[in-house]
Amino acid sequence: MKKELETVEQYLKGRDFRLTQPRRKIIEAVFATHDHFTADELRAMLSQKGEKVSTATVYRTLSLLCDGGFVEALDLDRGQLHYEHVLGHKNHFHLICSDSGKVIEFRSPSAEKTIRRIARARGFEVNSISLRVFGRGRACK
Amino acid sequence: MKKELETVEQYLKGRDFRLTQPRRKIIEAVFATHDHFTADELRAMLSQKGEKVSTATVYRTLSLLCDGGFVEALDLDRGQLHYEHVLGHKNHFHLICSDSGKVIEFRSPSAEKTIRRIARARGFEVNSISLRVFGRGRACK
DNA sequence: ATATTTGCAAATTCTTTGCAACTTA
DNA sequence: TAAGTTGCAAAGAATTTGCAAATAT
Fold it and tell me: Which of A74, A133, A136 to mutate to test the interface with B (most CBs of B within 10 A)?
């Protein structure tokens, strides 16, 4: 709850992490898009705006943001990880089209509730739920 | 339905694939365990029984078995893929303990039904559902 | 000032591939 | 014996890491 309101800046400040130039750029780009992106795509977005940040820093910052709960890592396909910020879209799931690679988000409080209930019944303290539906979208040909 | 009954041998025969010595060993090991394993763990299991199979062949055969629907690949953690055979436990989901790494399987026809309905409503022809619940198991300390 | 962070390039890790030798049907 | 398969070692792809130089507090 407090966490929800914590800004990235506050988060960094609270742990002796520094708000550097590269981090600022990355954070800005991460929150500027509502799409999923890979580490490399993010670097490309930045590069396109004339902002150069090294791959290593992109990875390091993304992982920092994941730890802070600002960003989530998704395994949409094998290969590279995809990321997305968790700003106003927590707890959603993904439909992934194997043809187009397109990803659609959806929510299902009822399915989620059921899943949490089952997990709890097994003595599991749920941390996060990853639900990916692979298939073919009629629309996205 | 017919598929359910098809043996690996029949599958191979039907497509000019050969039932070789290495494949036989791998298939045997895959169905001998009801646990998840990585390509390397499988190679280790074989090696422990004095059966040497190259990593390349393990990967190739595992991917063959996945194509045939006999084995499923799971992304339990980032890093290496985990596999499991689909013999009598289709359509189950996973609870993954971040502490112990232990994996518990569970089923939820109701959640599954809900998920499929939503997917279909979005014009999605569902191919497979991957549901992973990450958390901490009280039991597996 | 001084501890953190960056960028680079090298290192890792997992998986795939090319190809000559070897099996299987 | 013709076509599929293997093993090896090299290639790939994605991510991580060591370290000296740069930067934030």
Answer: A133
